[in-house]
Design brief:
The chain has about 350 residues and is of the alpha/beta class. The chain has two domains: about 180 residues, 3-Layer(aba) Sandwich (Rossmann fold), CATH 3.40.50; about 160 residues, Toll/interleukin-1 receptor homology (TIR) domain (Rossmann fold, 3-Layer(aba) Sandwich), CATH 3.40.50. Helices cover about 45% and strands about 20% of the residues. The strands form three sheets. A six-stranded mixed β-sheet has the order 2-1-3-7-8-9, sandwiched between helices. A hairpin with a 5-residue loop joins β5 and β6. It is rod-shaped. It starts with a strand and ends with a helix.
Length: about 350
Amino acid sequence: MSKTILILAANPKDTPQLRLDQEVREIENGLERAQKREEFTVKQRWAARPVDVRRAMLDFNPNIVHFCGHGAGEEGIAFEDEMGQTKFVNADALAGFFQLFADKVECVVLNACYSEVQAKAITKHIPYVIGMSKAIPDISAIEFSVAFYDALGAGKTFEFAYKLACNAIQWENEAENLTPKLETQRQYVEKKEELEHEVLEETELISQQKNPAIIIYFLAAKIDEKFCKAVQRFLKPTFNISPRRIELYSDFSIPDGEDETNYRQKLFEADIVLAFASQSFIDDDEIQKRNQTVLIRFNKGETKLLGIFVRNFILEDSIFTKFPLLPKNGFPLNNKNKWPDDDETYTEIAKDIRETILTFFK
């Protein structure tokens, strides 16, 4: 399919004279001898005013728009007014203009000094845009254009053509080969998504700082692990509707790669500690040592402590008389005479724990 190249040239009377005629002539000569010359049509508008640009875009529906002339960074690209004097058009205006033609234009080349700012704005809407990061000598600008369109005429991609054109400058003036900058819509979208992700992460971080997670630690002997997992399972519906994130920790669920010491330290940061009462809990010296710190925090009101009665032992002589014990009927979870239905058992316990969790939202 044939592609139309629209060349817009502007060298206002009040700006230094450029060899624009040579640039355009060399572009045309290169395309005329190109392998795929029949695939390109070149249209030109000289001493381009804003009105000329609009009409040319409507008349020719170009696929590639090439501007050669002057640029002035933030101030804009230098077109001409009715008197032949400089008429700057800034990045926002150019971006909005090319947005209207985004269904057709594939590439915009701004072969003008300090035009990178306009290129970045236009790339929101156009797949490939080239601008200059600083002033570029006339001869380098011409070398870039000639090599760029030679490559397109040979059937190469815009990216390849850009790289070849930069290399052509390097042959003539190595110091200038980094001046042209290719901006792509893909890069713009990726950068936008990256920034949006960073904003989202920052927003989530602020939200977490304002509403930190509720930490629940399951403190139990290894033999009682199955009771812990059952309680966790029946608590899931509460976690799903909680307005704050809930994090669960236990000595037997340390993730792979997690530092065990740091992970177990969460016990002393927990908002709620669930101590699974059994003789095995009492016999474990390490658990008893850690639980003493939990009791100190409990007595200071720094944590909520609930006991889960899992297997029979002499409760009256234990620490479990110092804080609430579940189930409320006083029978251990493994007593099948009193708890023949596991679902009923754990539902009752989950309801009581849920009431404790809800106190954080009152």
